[in-house]
Specification:
Layout (H helix, E strand, L loop, with lengths): L1 E3 L10 E6 L4 H9 L3 E4 L14 H4 E5 L2 E4 L18 E3 L2 E4 L6 H10 L1 E4 L9 E5 L2 E4 L2 H9 L3 E4 L19 E5 L2 E4 L9 H10 L3 E3 L12 E7 L1
Parallel strand pairs: 2-3, 7-8, 10-11, 13-14
Antiparallel strand pairs: 1-15, 2-15, 4-5, 6-7, 9-10, 12-13
């Protein structure tokens, strides 16, 4: 049996269907190996080509099958217009820059979540979410705010995730949970200068890393977990 993932970003069981942006065949093959069906995010002409399919820019999943999709003309080619939907929901909290999130979306989010206001507009890109109170980030502002509310946070050095057309990408955009105890990375975590520390952090939380050997971590816009096993 299957059901919609109840909680954004944190599946309770193994994922069966996910939304992702542009991925290589090696990554798709690996996800298919875990019996995960992929829904490709269509290119958004309002965004730059290299990030036009990024799920974390185009879509916001609210749980229980509810998805908000950016409509034509809502996003833009540069920051902050490309980040209007880029929020990170983690348990009862919503991390976002309240100045960059679309106004009506922010108003709705305030009704359901405790807003954690941060300076980083690309909040979802910058957060690898392990569970309701554990994340990895390269952003000092996210690190400090998350620690303040009691999160277990691993702070990484920025600049070690590939994103074509940009100086670098972000750790949150390079992967996502594919079950409550498995995390997919688009690349090889051991090639990251802090790979050993990252592995230890995942081991601490009893989460197995699934990745692609001998490939640099690459930002593809993260994963939206949609349907899971019951």
């Amino acid at each position: 049996m299957e059901q919609y993932v109840k909680q954004p970003n944190i599946p309770q069981e193994s994922c069966k269907q996910i939304f992702v942006g542009r991925l290589g065949e090696d990554a798709k093959h690996l996800l298919n190996h875990y019996n995960i069906s992929i829904i490709d995010v269509a290119p958004n002409q309002d965004l730059p080509e290299n990030i036009s399919t990024h799920a974390d820019l185009n879509l916001l999943y609210l749980g229980n099958g509810k998805i908000i999709k950016a409509e034509n003309g809502q996003l833009g080619l540069s920051y902050p217009d490309d980040a209007k939907f880029n929020v990170a929901i983690v348990g009862k909290y919503c991390f976002c820059n309240t100045k960059t999130v679309q106004a009506d979306l922010l108003q709705m989010l305030r009704e359901y979540y405790e807003i954690v206001n941060i300076n980083q507009g690309y909040s979802k890109c910058n957060m690898a979410i392990l569970n309701e109170n554990s994340i990895i980030t390269e952003d000092w502002g996210i690190y400090e705010k998350a620690k303040t509310i009691g999160f277990d946070v691993l702070k990484l050095e920025p600049g070690h995730v590939k994103l074509n057309g940009y100086k670098y990408g972000f750790i949150g955009g390079a992967g996502g949970l594919i079950s409550y105890n498995k995390y997919f990375f688009n690349g090889d975590i051991d090639l990251h200068p802090q790979g050993y520390i990252i592995r230890n952090f995942f081991d601490k939380h009893n989460i197995q890393i699934i990745g692609i050997k001998n490939k640099q971590l690459e930002d593809f816009g993260s994963i939206i977990q949609f349907i899971e096993e019951v």
